[in-house]
C-alpha cells in the first residue's frame, strides 16, 4: 500500500445566499465572519469555516447510500458522535473508510488521529452578511408544540450569493484507496453546503481555466501552492494568482492538465476534476455497491 500526501485546492462559488449557523444573538441567527486588519483598515469577510466543511464531508460519507439499503454509517455502525474507530476489521465488522481518514474517538478506549485536514474558507469579496426576516420552519413549530397558529418570525443572517470561497483539503500520508473517501466526500459535499435551506455551491469555472481545481499527489511538494491571500478582496487578481500558481511547478511543464515529475503529480482544471471523479467512483465501487 503506497502512501502519498494529497492536496485539493479549489475556489467554490455560492449561487445563492447561504447560512452557516454560528451563534444566536437575541432573535438573530448569525453567520460566522472573520475580521482582517489590512492596509486599508479593518475588513469583514464571510467565512465558510473549514471545521464546518469537514463536518459536512464526514456526514456526506456516513449518509452515502449502501447497497444493503442502509446508509454507509448504519452499515458500518459508525456515526457522529459514536465514531467506530475501526481502522482494521474488528469483531467481524469491516474497517471503516471514514474513521481511517477523518479520525475517531472511542472514549477511554481508542483514538485515531485524522489525516485529512481542511483550510481556507475566507471569501474573496468583502460583501458582509445580510440579515433577513424568516418565518419559523413548520418542523420547528411542531417541536415547540404551541403557538402553532402564529409562526414566530425570526431574523437570520445570510452570506450573500456570488461569493467566492477558496478552500483547501490536505491528506497526510494516505494510500490512494484511503484518499478515495476524501475525494468522494469533497465532490458530494458541494450540493449540500449550508445549514437549512437553501444549500449548495459549485466549483467556480471559466472558459480559460475550466474548474478552479488543483489536485496534488506527492512525496515532495513542488512549485507554488494556489492559495489566495485572505487580504485579497478583488476577484480578478485573486483568480489570476490562482491560475498562475496552479501552473507553476518548478522544472515541469504542462502539456495538458497534468504535470508529472519525480515524487510529484499535479492535475489542474478539468483533469483535476476527472481524477477526483475517478477516485470517488473507486470509493463507491469499494464501499457502496
Ligand atoms: Zn467509523
Secondary structure blueprint with pairings:
Blueprint: E1 3-13, E2 21-25, E3 28-31, E4 33-38, E5 41-46, H1 50-62, H2 72-76, H3 97-102, E6 104-106, E7 110-112, E8 116-120, E9 130-135, H4 138-144, E10 153-158, E11 164-175, H5 176-189, E12 202-203, E13 205-206, E14 210-211, E15 213-218, H6 235-246, E16 258-261, E17 264-268, H7 270-287
Parallel strand pairs: 3-10
Antiparallel strand pairs: 1-11, 1-12, 1-15, 2-3, 4-5, 6-7, 8-11, 9-10, 13-14, 15-17, 16-17
Bound molecules: zinc ion (ZN).
Describe the structure using short key phrases.
289 residues, alpha+beta, 7-stranded antiparallel β-sheet
Your description of this structure?
With 289 residues, this protein is an alpha+beta fold. It has one domain (3-136, 152-287). The protein contains 7 helices and 17 strands. The chain has helices spanning 50-62, 72-76, 97-102, 138-144, 176-189, 235-246, 270-287, and strands spanning 3-13, 21-25, 28-31, 33-38, 41-46, 104-106, 110-112, 116-120, 130-135, 153-158, 164-175, 202-203, 205-206, 210-211, 213-218, 258-261, 264-268. Strands 1, 8, 11, 12, 15, 16 and 17 form a 7-stranded antiparallel β-sheet that branches. β2 (21-25) and β3 form a beta hairpin. α1 (50-62) packs across α5 (176-189) and α5 (176-189) packs across α7. The longest helix has 18 residues, at 270-287. It is globular and about 55 Å long. The model has no long low-confidence stretch (mean pLDDT 88). It binds zinc ion. Residues 76, 78, 83-84, 86, 96, 98-99, 104 line the site of zinc ion (ZN).
Amino acid at each position: 500500500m503506497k502512501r502519498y500526501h494529497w492536496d485539493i485546492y479549489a475556489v467554490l462559488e455560492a449561487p445563492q445566499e447561504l447560512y452557516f449557523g454560528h451563534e444566536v444573538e437575541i432573535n438573530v441567527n448569525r453567520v460566522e465572519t472573520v475580521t482582517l486588519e489590512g492596509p486599508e483598515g479593518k475588513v469583514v469577510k464571510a467565512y465558510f469555516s473549514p471545521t464546518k466543511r469537514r463536518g459536512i464531508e464526514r456526514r456526506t460519507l456516513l449518509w452515502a447510500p449502501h447497497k444493503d439499503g442502509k446508509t454507509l454509517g448504519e452499515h458500518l455502525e459508525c456515526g457522529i458522535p459514536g465514531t467506530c474507530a475501526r481502522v482494521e476489521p474488528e469483531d467481524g465488522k469491516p474497517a471503516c473508510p471514514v474513521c481511517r481518514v477523518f479520525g475517531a474517538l472511542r472514549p477511554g478506549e481508542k483514538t485515531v488521529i485524522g489525516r485529512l485536514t481542511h483550510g481556507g474558507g475566507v471569501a474573496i469579496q468583502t460583501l458582509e452578511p445580510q440579515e433577513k426576516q424568516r418565518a419559523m420552519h413548520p418542523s420547528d413549530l411542531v417541536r415547540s408544540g404551541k403557538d402553532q397558529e402564529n409562526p414566530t418570525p425570526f431574523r437570520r443572517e445570510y452570506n450573500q450569493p456570488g461569493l467566492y470561497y477558496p478552500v483547501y483539503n490536505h491528506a497526510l500520508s494516505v494510500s490512494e484507496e484511503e484518499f478515495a473517501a476524501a475525494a468522494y466526500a469533497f465532490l458530494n459535499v458541494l450540493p449540500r453546503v449550508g445549514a437549512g435551506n437553501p444549500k449548495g455551491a459549485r466549483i467556480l469555472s471559466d472558459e480559460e481555466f475550466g474548474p478552479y481545481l488543483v489536485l496534488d499527489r506527492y512525496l515532495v511538494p513542488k512549485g507554488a501552492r494556489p492559495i489566495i491571500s485572505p487580504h485579497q478582496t478583488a476577484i480578478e487578481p485573486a483568480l489570476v494568482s490562482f491560475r498562475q500558481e496552479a501552473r507553476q511547478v518548478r522544472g515541469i511543464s504542462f502539456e495538458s492538465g497534468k504535470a508529472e515529475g519525480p515524487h510529484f503529480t499535479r492535475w489542474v482544471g478539468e483533469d483535476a476534476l476527472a481524477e477526483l471523479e475517478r477516485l470517488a467512483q473507486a470509493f463507491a465501487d469499494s464501499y457502496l455497491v
